[in-house]
Amino acid sequence: MREVFNRYLDYLKAERNASWYTLRNYETDLMGTYKRGAGKGFFQFIISKNISDFRTVDKQTVREYLSWLVEQGIDKSSMSRKLSAIRSFYRFLLIEGIIEKSPIPVNTSGRKGERSSLSPKQDKRLPVFLTREEAEQLINTPDTTRPEGKRDRAILELLYASGLRVSEIWQLNLSNLNLDNREIRVLGKGAKERVVLMGIPAAAALKEYIHNGRPRLVLNKRFTDALFLNKRGKRLSMRGIQKQLKHYAETLGLHKSVHPHILRHTFATHMLDGGADLRVVQELLGHADLSTTQIYTHVTKQQAKKVYLTAHPMAQENETLSKTQEKDGSGER
């Protein structure tokens, strides 16, 4: 099983140009992890069901696995990702001629958006984002008299100014930056490269960190191209970025679960609020499908309605009148 799985990982790298992040997720979802509190991978599950050969897995086995995930309290988005990993693996087995039929319907039409009957229906939740004031306060929280503070200020400025994913921030190198043009070359999902932009404050924070913060974090004057370093002089991990962001949010007393992706949501929402074209935002975020970006238009519409009802005098009068009519029944026709 392991030998075939290693061939599958090689296939993802060579043929699908999958990123390290995707490879890690697929390996965890299929092979599992032995960390305490982590769930079983699909292969661990079928072994526990006395199925020794993945070629004998059928649709019912996959249904049982999904039911087991529900019992473990796994959310729908994680279940969909795990199902996607299983589907991708069995698609590989079909291509290689190892199996003749997949236990999961495989999309062969090339059209996006097709959903298997096994896929859990996703809850449509609007993304949480920060207000302009909250974003500004959060960015100003790090102590910039310290090299770590200069680093964190640059990270926060960059997350808000560019809408980068934490995985994209984590793997940034000095060579990816063009501070004169305020551009960054980014390797996104599926190892697709794109150029993102940043504003003057983000560029200034990066220059301050690179010139006056980063040199104090490089130990033994050892050369490294990694942009963001930890106190040991090594590349700052994604977990490290998440931990620092959580710390600053708690320091500020924000009553929201703040994580790197919330600043990505904030970037997109504020861009559209400011009149940016949806296609431009899609390009900057690195979304393959416009429908992924369109979720932010629902957020901005809600914001527009809220502002209208709060600011326009006639809207306030009509709202009060409507509530009065509901109470006395005079609103019925």
**CATH level-two architecture of the largest domain:** Orthogonal Bundle
Binned, the helix content reads: 55-70%
The neighbouring-strand order within the major sheet is 1-2-3
Helix/strand structural class: mainly alpha
Question: What would you say this structure looks like, in words?
Answer:
By secondary structure, this protein is mainly α. The chain folds into two domains: 95 residues, DNA polymerase, domain 1, CATH 1.10.150; 176 residues, hpI Integrase, Chain A. The chain has 15 helices and three strands. A three-stranded antiparallel β-sheet has the order 1-2-3. A hairpin with a 4-residue loop joins strand 1 and strand 2. The longest helix has 22 residues. It is globular, with a radius of gyration of 24 Å. About 4% of the residues have low confidence.
Summarize the structure.
With 333 residues, this protein is mostly helical. The longest helix is centred in the C-terminal third of the chain and has 22 residues. It contains 15 helices and 3 strands.
Question: What labels describe this entry?
Answer:
3 strands, 15 helices, mainly alpha, 333 residues, hpI Integrase, Chain A, 56% helix, 3-stranded antiparallel beta sheet, 2 domains, DNA polymerase, domain 1
